[in-house]
Amino acid sequence: MTVPLVLVQGDITRQRVDAVVNAANSSLLGGGGVDGAIHRAGGPEILADCRRLRAARYGKGLPTGRAVATVAGRLDARHVIHTVGPVWSATQDRSELLASCHRESLRVAAELGARTVAFPAISTGVYRWPLDDAARIAVRTVREAADPADFDEVRFVLFDRAAYDVFAAELATQGEG
Ligand code: ADP
Prior knowledge:
By secondary structure, this protein is of the alpha/beta class. Helix content is 40%, strand content 18%. The protein has helices at 33-42, 44-56, 95-112, 131-145, 161-174; strands spanning 5-9, 19-24, 67-71, 79-84, 116-119, 153-158. The chain has a 6-stranded mixed sheet, with helices on both faces. Strand 3 and strand 4 form a beta hairpin. Helix 3 (95-112) crosses helix 4 (131-145) and helix 4 crosses helix 5. 43% of the residues are buried. The model has no long low-confidence stretch (mean pLDDT 97). The protein binds adenosine-5'-diphosphate. Pfam families: Macro.
């Protein structure tokens, strides 16, 4: 058995789930894209929690491929899980780091008892990862790593129709059951 994977076209800050994954940058101090949207919608408590984490553990930044949780502020969620995606490289294979973002986020979610988790398309914005390749890695990794004993649903939230279609094609290719 595998965890149900659900695709939604929309805004990740509007999801009602236990944990929302943020495509953060290593500073944990906010940025553009998903990161900016989460901090705007969730309010200052999330940033305050990020600053505490930075001071306590991640003064040099959260390493690429790792994940940490904070409160979710005003979001309709209990936790935000911040993970740092790799920047796309045409000369280096960084797939393992992108897979690690998904695995680590799920590990942190499971530790917190978060049974529903929403992921954005990590690394496909400012970090320029080609959507079809990112979708292949994201879907495969979540299918392999999400234990159905831990999760009721993993949701990919795609901002636009084009990204939704790419993820839908990937789910169809890899099989949904
Ligand atoms: P990264 O720096 O990891 O590339 P970005 O936040 O720049 O992260 O973009 C990741 C993906 O999230 C892109 O496909 C972008 O279109 C999408 N995105 C941006 N804002 C939102 C949002 N509010 N909800 C869902 N997806 C979003």
